[in-house]
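Appendix B, example 12.
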Amino acid sequence: MIAEPVLERAAHKGAAHPSHPRHPRHPQPVTSFVRATKSDADAMAQLINIAGEGLPVYLWQDMAEGSETAFDVGRRRAQRDEGGFSYRNTTLAVCHGETVAALVDYAQPDQPEPFDPADIPAIFVPILELESLAPGSWYINVLAVFPAHRDQGIGSALLARAEANARHAGKKTVSLIASDGNPDAIRLYQRQGFVACAQRPMVKEGWENRGQNWVLLIKEI
């Protein structure tokens, strides 16, 4: 079982990975941005797993209790009042009454919590090392769009939402961590002014992913 505090800080750091289909769809309007509630836990769990390219489910399956499935764990975690992956930190994009995307963002501590790599699972070490390079930033933990609604500007709109949240909180920088196995996402972030500042080799253990490195991207606002 993964230790809860470490999981909260690291389990879904690869989640900001919106990818794009090869053939753009006709744009549909995003009718609204709304704050998530506990009843949105199912969509949240699906979106974080899409964004994390299966890493969340890989982690959740070892946290299941009794007859729970991996997604049961994800829904349970989304419904908590505390922790990074919580409905309290989540904004949903809703189109024609349907949840189509999610943003999970919040402030990073000014002083990163120290950790001993020997005390945590190796899969988390490179992620936590990159997190520690952006103390006090506004952190985008999850940015995900359901496949049928990509290439409609929703990801860019959610990035703008995150920047507005950062300014409201008095932050000067916005940070995120992405996989280099998703170059479309990294290009999106770079078009929006994010700069790749550091990277660390992935430790995959049993998780299958085409990426080789986690990449820290930062934008000054």
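DSSP finds seven helices and seven strands in the chain. The first helix runs from residue 4 to 10.
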